[in-house]
């Protein structure tokens, strides 16, 4: 994977329009995921359990669940597949991967590497197609033991319902409407960069997008002015150019969805401080200008529903209590950001925000060492870190009798 990273990155960039600068770094990093779980494969330790029952020796053991179905979206197909693939293989499972019908090319190319690396046939498999043709039969197949899925809430709910019919386990990483919270004691220059990273990197096409910017009212106007000024010069265009900062939207349906939400925001009374229009590149492509809405109420659709594009909602707040209330007043709980120089305030916010990840004075950092997943409708289970491998393992408890005499069979021990 390390050797073929530039080739894989180019294919993915051409397939979904992601910035070459980002996807190249992302694909190179995937080899580290493989190394991490290769090292973890022989470190899944069982436990001897002290028990209150005399004459028995009790211990646990972990066993691979079996065949794992991996279903991934179009925004980061190689990365989001590897997040599931690496721990599943380390657990001893085999996998069947269904990439998005929009972006299958990079996954098909990556699958060839498993043959080059010497994997036995049938351990890693790729099947392409639409959800109803491939995804649904895969989820309901009697030989599939677990489903690892990243994607939209509606698709995740359908998969969860189908899996429940045969009591399959699932790992679901779904949508987000993550709050990025800036307090008046924050380093504003750094916070502006963090907000930009949270929503405009990857053109907002990321589940962890900090799409709700909560700004303390005492600095609201100053901060928005700085943010707008920073984004005015953002370079849009060919994602293959290293200087490009805003890439095209990956699919035409997603472009139409984003433009629809921009019109919804305007109709709800939000004020467009920046962008709000499509941008037509000389070379073609579906672009949406970086868009910032002010005057947003948290009850608006634009603040409650996932847009999955470069659209930011700015919501003012008075104090910590109101910031917490607004941050948690949403159906999602995938990620969040807090910008403050107060350790007390940072710890308070990390305790009270209902989200699987809280970044303090940074945003959008992930690692193979650290668990990732959501609260509420943002999903079930965890990816990355030691926690992830347990998603693909059954826990078995073994009781060995050391007593020469069998106890009274009519009395449960």
UniProtKB/TrEMBL annotation:
Keywords: Oxidoreductase. The active site is at residue 173. GO terms for molecular function: oxidoreductase activity, acting on the aldehyde or oxo group of donors, NAD or NADP as acceptor. The keyword Oxidoreductase applies. Residues 1-398 form the Aldehyde dehydrogenase domain. InterPro entries: Ald_DH/histidinol_DH, Ald_DH_C, Ald_DH_CS_CYS, Ald_DH_CS_GLU, Ald_DH_N, Aldehyde_DH_dom. The keyword Cell inner membrane does not apply. It comes from the Bacteria. PANTHER family: ALDEHYDE DEHYDROGENASE-RELATED. This is Aldehyde dehydrogenase DhaS.
